[in-house]
Each structure stands twice: as C-alpha cells, then as structure tokens.
Here is the input.
Amino acid sequence: MLNFTQINNVVPRWISESHPSPVIISTRARIARNIKNFPYLFRLTDKQSMDLLEKINSSLHQIPDLAGSYIFIKLSNQSHKFKQFLKERFLITDYLLKGENKQIVIDRNEYMNIMINEEDHLRIQVIYPGLNFRKAYQFIESIESRLENILEFDFNEEFGYLTSCPTNAGTGLRVSSMMHLIGLKLNSKIKQITDNLAGSGFTVRGFSGEGSKFLGAIYQISNQLSLGMNEKEILDKVEKVTLEIEKMELLERKELLRNEPVIKNIMESFEVCKNSTALDFVSAMTHISMVKLGIDLKLVKTIPSANDMNKLLIMIQPMHIAFLNKENLKNIDIVNENKLRAKIIKDFLSTGEICLKSLQQEPSRL
Amino acid sequence: MKCDLCKISEATIHIQEVINNNIKTIHICEDCAKSYGIKNNIFEMGFNLFDLFAKINGEKKDDIELKENPVKEHKSGIDDENIIKCPLCGISYDEFLESGKLGCGYCYTSFREQIKPILRRIHGCIYHKGKVPVKYKKRIKIVKDLKVLNNRLRMALKKEDYEEAAFLRDKIKKISTQTEE
Here is the structure.
C-alpha cells in the first residue's frame, strides 16, 4: 500500500514552483501509444491486460534511471477515495478509476506520469509550471524513445501512431496550457475567445477537465488536431496562442483597475477568504480567483504571492481535504469538508503555508 | 490442390478463418507461406496472416460478385450481408461508429477507406507528418532508395548503358535483401 511519504509534496511541484507568468499556471503535454499485437481497451481481456501490464513494466525496468527512482502505483487494489485523490492531482483519468490491471508510474517530483491500460495502452504525461512546452515534450520524448527500443508501438506510415480513438491518431500528442483568465471573464470577452479557439483547432476545457465548468476562471487550452502536423508545429501552435491570450488577459486586468464594482468584489472575496468558517468548493474557487487577481493588481497584500495561490487550487479539492486531514479520513462529511476548506484558505493567507494540524504528524497509511 | 496465391505449386498449408460463424479455409504452398511470413508460432507472425486473408478473400469476393451480382458495383454503402469487420479483433465498422473507439491497431487497415474521411473531418488531414519510429525510418529509406535506383536502372537500360545497369542491378539486389532481414 502506498502512503503519503511516497507522495513527495502536499501539492505537486508543477503548481508550487515559482515562475514569472501571472496568467499561465502550467503546461501539460501527453502522448498516446499502443503496443503492437494487443487489442485496445474495449477488446482487451483481463488476461491480455495483465500480460500487457507485465510487458510494459518489464520494459520500464530496463530503463536504468527510470526503474530506480520512479514510483509504481498499482490502482486495482487502491480505494476509490485514493484514486479520486490522484485524479485531483491530474495523475489519473476516468479510465483508470475502474477495472483491473491499471497502473501509473510517476517520478518523485511528480512532473512525469505514465498511465498504463488507459484508453490507450500507454499515456505519458508531463506537467511543468508556467510556460514550458518544449521542456515538457522533451521529457516525454526521452522516455518514449527509450521505450521504443524495447516495445513495438502500433504505427502505420499513413496515419502515424495508432490510437483507440481516431481523434488522437498521428502524433498522439496533446499539449495544453492552464490559464487564469479572470480579466477576460469579468470583461465578458472570454466567450468570444473560446468560440474563436474552438473554430481554429483548439479545445477549451475547465480546471477539472472534460465537461467541467470554468470554475475560478481557469481555462485549459489544447490542440484538437494530432494528425497532419509534426510535434514541433503542434507545440508552436499552442504556445503561440497561449502567449497571445496571456497578452490579452494582461490588458484586460489593467482595465479592471478602473472598474469600481470589480475592485469592491475583490475586497469582498478577500474578506470572505480571511474570515469564513465554512466554504464550499465552487465558491472557494471563485473567491480564490478574485484574491489572486487582487494580489496581482496590488490591491490586496498577502504573504503568499499570486502564483503561490495556485497551490490552493489543488489543496481545496474534496479528496485532498479528506486525505490530508487524518482525523476525519474515514468519514468526512460535507459540513466538515467545508469547515476545513475555510481553515486551509484562512491559514494559507496569513502564513503562506498549507498547515492543517494533522499534516504535521506522521503521514498515515491509506 | 493448387495454392490459392500462386496457383502453381501444390498447397500444403491450410488455414481457417472464422467470420460471423462462416468458416473460410485457404490453401497455400510453402513458398507463398514463407513470403507472407507465416511461422509455426502465431505470435511471431504479426499481422501478415490477416493481410493474406484480405488478399485472398478480396480476390475471391470480386470474382463471385461479378458472376452473381453484376449490379453490385453500382450499389453504394454497405449492406447487411457484407458487414465490414476487423478480422483481428472482430469489431464491426458499425460498432466502431457507435462507440467512437477502435478495437485494435489493425482496425485502421481493416476500415482504411471508411476511416479516411473520418480522420479528414477530425484533423483536416489524413497523412501523418510527425515522429516516425526508428525501425520504420530505415524501412521507409530503403523503399525510397529502391525507387530511385529502379528509375536509374530504367534510364540506363533505355540508353543501353549495360555496365551502369549491371552495377545498379547488383545494388538493388543488395538493398532488397536488407528489407527482408
């Protein structure tokens, strides 16, 4: 069983490390690969998925620096709550929540994550703080190239790397940037931008991925197309649009300095965060978003910087609160969850630290 | 019984394929089996067996259709009797359309003609441009080299430059043996 000493940090490094952009939170890249001569997820028997997992694991163990320092987490024997916890950290997708022979392999810094028996046999994902498309892809490529010497991936000269869903075929590459677009949202310009993006080969999603609302004005923008462009072109395209949107967002934020009602709202949100005794997830996201903006515009003074506030986005999710608060591990109800959320936010604003009392104790087994 | 492929040698290998409870048997000679990479161990064979079935079934189907149903070629779409299925994983084209997910890598070959317009609709393009596995890079280079050399050979023969032709022929032979490896 896994315990928290294996998960290095309370929040992952890709969200806690400092970086210069007040708008771009993180950069993510992932590739999809399938192993030749194995059927895809929906046609895979339990025996085949077990063989596949063994085959991939033995290949990973042949990569010297990887085998020693990476954490292998078998998901089938983990509790549903723990899997939800991993999902909140962007380490697993819905395909890994259920079923046998599911596994992830993460590096100790939690930048890199390999998902096994996902929609595709292999998904390799890297998330870095701020704007870092090239570095993220290079990390993925360094692992993929070494795996390619050992495993044979499904590839076809015409359609490229073959994937379970044709939307991922070709390069199998999907890159995205996570951005805080509060200025564009408050000035009602975001709808036009997301509509334009959707029409020009981009997908726009919220904080928690597919189907999620744009909570806290957080947007994930990714390439829709993976076939017909090479990897560099895809990276350049998403990077270019990310920088353009960042520029637009910064202009809108300047405008907001003259907007009295917005300034009033920022101050109100700041008071709520400092004084609330209970906060639900949705309103917490909204208030954090406004305080982040307030810090960036130098309207409010806090110990944590605007980028430090990003840590809260991970920390205030339900399973993070449940798991990191040892006493209520077994039975956390929504009332307690909301109380703890308010406490985490309040403490964070006054100390700059995520300090739940129980976090200081020896981490518990899950 | 003569071989289904070359139709010259005696068939010594008989392989059965089951699609929709219909059993189809093909008969081939040892040489043709070798050229299709058929080995005793099914896992070493990769997809060659399915290419083989596709080839033989395809040829036979055309013959039958022409005799029995001359109107067939004017029909469009897929009728019930002729459901397209991937011979490797068994998923039908309709099942794929319903779920949006393919059953295996070979589906891209089985449904190649149907999947092309889908890929075009999604990606606006149907040709891969990015990374190519090292193994394929070598293969693609060899195919390209052979094409160039064959062109040069044709030119040399046209010019009656037999010395050059002999040189090129040897080179082509040498590269061709590399592909078989």
